[in-house]
Amino acid sequence: MEIFTSDQLLNGAGLAGVLFYLGSYALLQLGLLRGNGYAYAILNLVAASLVLLSLTVAFNLSSALIQMSWVVISIFGIARLMWINRRVRFSDEEQALLDTVFPDMPTPIARRFLNRGNWVDAESGALLLAEGEPVVNLYYLADGKVQVISGGQPIGTVGNGLLGEMNVLSGGVASASVTVLDPARLFVISGDTLRRMVARDPEFRILLENGMGRDTGRKLMRANERLSTLSENTV
């Protein structure tokens, strides 16, 4: 005795397709999926295929054409993403920056971001940020060491990560000065450039702010660890 008839299974596939459609759109609106990512295209492909399969029970030409169009568009989108990802290349230092700060940034967006900035070498003594002065650039310290100075007193050193991320988008003033201690390798991009990019691309803004937030969190954790170690040594 059959538990489900073939028609019931096909109708179930159609309902599952509707759930995939609604689920993928809901995740997109919640910011959990990117519209230009693999996951969204694959979910739409699965959804359209399931609904198209269900139409074999009660065929409707208009619905079939819509689902076939979604299948073709989704396959095209996946193929385009694969082509772009294979075509775009990053240098070792670019890849290290992305892995450290922006691991979830899609390849095309990451390429545009990196193309807007420059890699520079800074000698010892170079002033990157001045306390009380507007933050005009975002820096990524790839190699070397910088010293953070507040109120004329050294408060710590940084050997890797972002510099100026707290105020670069708002153009606010730096809460501390940052000076190069050891010759440093830096990626630098201007705040004006970043503001233009985030104004044109809301997705880039989210990715940028998420990466900057994570990097700030890592630095705070390292600072807390140093303070904890210092407290233990003075007890």
Descriptive report:
With 235 residues, the chain is an alpha+beta fold. It folds into two domains: 6-87; 92-234, Jelly Rolls, CATH 2.60.120. The protein has seven helices and six strands. Strands 1, 2, 3, 4, 5 and 6 form a six-stranded antiparallel β-sheet that branches. The N and C termini lie far apart (78 Å). The mean pLDDT is 87.
Concise summary:
The chain is of the alpha+beta class and 235 residues long. It has helices spanning 6-29, 38-54, 61-87, 92-101, 107-115, 191-200, 202-234, and strands spanning 118-122, 127-129, 137-150, 153-158, 161-163, 177-190.
Indicate the CATH topology of the largest domain: Jelly Rolls
Number of domains: 2
- In terms of DSSP E residues, the strand content is 15-25%
Morphology: elongated
Give the N-terminus to C-terminus distance in angstroms.
78 Å
What is the topological layout?
Layout: H1 6-29, H2 38-54, H3 61-87, H4 92-101, H5 107-115, E1 118-122, E2 127-129, E3 137-150, E4 153-158, E5 161-163, E6 177-190, H6 191-200, H7 202-234
Antiparallel strand pairs: 1-6, 2-6, 3-4, 3-5, 3-6
Helix pairs in contact: 1-2, 2-3, 6-7
